[in-house]
Amino acid sequence: MRSVLRCPRPVAAGTLRGRAARGGLAALLAAGAGLAGTGVTQTAAAGVINTPMVAMAATPDGHGYWLVGADGGVFPFGDARGYGSTAGQPLARPIVGIAATPSGHGYWLAGADGGVFPFGDAQGYGSSGGQPLNKPIVAIAATVTGRGYWLAAADGGVFPFGDARGDGSAGALHLNQPIVGIAATRSGHGYWLASRDGGIFPFGDAGGYGSTGGMGLNQPIVGIAGTADSRGYWLTARDGGVFPFGDADGYGSAASLQLNQPASAGAAAPDGGGYWVMARDGGIFPYGDAGGYGSTGGSTIVHDSDTSTSGSGIKDIIRAAAQRHGVDGDWMIRIAECESGLNPRAYNLSGPYIGLFQFLRSTFTNNGGHNIYDASDQSEVTANMLAHGQAHQWSCA
Predict the structure, then answer these.
(1) CA atoms within 13 A of residue 228's CA, in its CB half-sphere
(2) pTM metric for this prediction
(3) Which residues on adjacent β-strands are paired with residue 58?
(4) What is the pLDDT of residue 342?
(5) Would 66 be classed as within a structural domain?
């Protein structure tokens, strides 16, 4: 299955309903609304955001959306309203997901530790915060009634709350790659889990319509969104590629664009006639009938380290990149341990050498890198270079 490469139409100057031709270069900046109940105002003024954007959710009519950062800052655009956020509050673990209520008058934020934060008319039905988890939570999906939700963990565990049904999980399976997303069926009686390699795990009344599992992807999958009738779904890849399956149509993707930041999420238009791809800087790429209502694209990310990734998580990222490029994962881990102590924020003034594998910025960008402090990006570039005989670039190799 190939990703669709049609490009979005360019933005009409001065309008918030145009289309971003580039998430970072030409995406619109719009100030977020004040977020009631927290005292925190989210704004994209001066092109700065505190943390990377990690998830997005559309409003029920598709005429707006919310973007959420790893600190829980919420940025509403179009007819989306801001009902609160966790920005400025101490969090045990970063925020990883957002799900909107059926009315569009509220939303839930989910943390990597399973903490759930309801705002607006969203109610709290329980969480796994404070409970020991085998692997961190990576995504949240709401039930059709809005009276419950599912949390999905990286190992495929599924935690239902409220009126959400537990229809199965991949927690007992040996996964080739960790789970990155969950999408619920329209009936609320099933859901799909998607893994980094595009493997699809359907449960309940969710059908299996295809996957990219076992295919050689340019970049890993970062999310899944179902069609309006639940007879298909889209997978979004880190390079902005979009893979449609079942009755999902391919309306275009950002895979052929030069992104300022990698894609981190996708969301479907409620009518199934389009979708959005979101980049880590909040750049928004709308396709089909999905509208462009604003973005934080092109913003500088103040705190850009992957605070959700532990040392073991870094090793998982390295091994995944090594596997994709046919390189020895343990060898790559030894190089990273030697070069940076597995620290994606390591900085050596003598180069300066930066990040997990201690790149010169010029070498990193010349080999296709985007975010030099991102563990996944560094691992992908390093694995590709090692696969092409460039081990001499590292003294630790």
Answers:
(1) 12
(2) 0.72
(3) 65
(4) 87
(5) yes
